[in-house]
Design goal:
alpha/beta; Spore Coat Polysaccharide Biosynthesis Protein SpsA, Chain A; 7 strands
Length: 215
């Protein structure tokens, strides 16, 4: 198995909190921004705890996100291109590669509140055998993680039907029943229910403990 210790820099994009989690039920309307922030904190802290991760770089124009995730240990840059998700990820990956030469780069979804460091390490170990690779989300349509062993090969294709587009671009799929938390992003109440079963991170757990259970 390749030595992946500290080999990867992961870019986590966090959009404006006021625009986040709009597919959650109306009962969560007062908590959508707090949920998005809690998800990003749990995701980032779990990624930083992976022994395969050298650094996490957050791309955001949200000051509160920047402050809290920097305090958690992430590097932070603004969304200078301001031209959509994929250009933001390319910008973040370039900054990460400049700060950490020789490191593989990847984009990790910010809404993985049940992410486990050991499972992320497994996915990254498998990715080390491929020039480019991706992890399909639990729904089977989207992507939660896309990776390249070198910056020139990093070409994220996030958006509608991104799993199909990453596969069509030649990315190897990183699969396995032992990485469920890497696949379980949360956009809806049903997603959150599954993430609860996997085990939520501390920030999300604390927040939800103070919110009345909703359907």
């Amino acid at each position: 198995m390749p030595d992946t210790h500290g080999r990867w820099c992961l870019v986590v994009p966090v959009k404006r909190l006021a625009l986040a989690k709009t597919r959650m039920s109306p009962a969560y309307d007062l908590h959508r921004r707090d949920l998005a922030l809690a998800f990003a904190l749990d995701t980032t802290k779990a990624a930083l705890a992976s022994d395969a991760v050298r650094a996490v770089l957050v791309v955001t124009d949200e000051p509160e996100v920047a402050d809290l995730l920097a305090a958690a240990g992430a590097d932070v840059v603004g969304d200078e291109p301001d031209a959509g998700l994929n250009p933001a990820l390319a910008h973040g990956a370039a900054a990460a590669a400049a700060a950490h030469p020789g490191c593989g780069v990847g984009a990790l979804s910010a809404d993985l509140p049940s992410l486990r460091s050991a499972e992320l390490s497994r996915a990254l170990e498998r990715a080390a055998s491929h020039e480019t690779s991706f992890v399909r989300d639990a729904a089977g349509i989207g992507t939660t993680l896309v990776l390249a062993r070198s910056l020139p090969a990093f070409r994220p294709e996030f958006g509608a039907d991104s799993a199909r587009r990453h596969a069509a671009a030649g990315c190897a799929e990183i699969a396995g029943d032992d990485i469920p938390s890497v696949r379980q992003d949360v956009d809806t109440n049903d997603d959150l229910a599954v993430a609860r079963l996997l085990g939520l991170g501390p920030q999300t757990s604390q927040l939800l403990a103070g919110i009345r259970e909703v359907g």
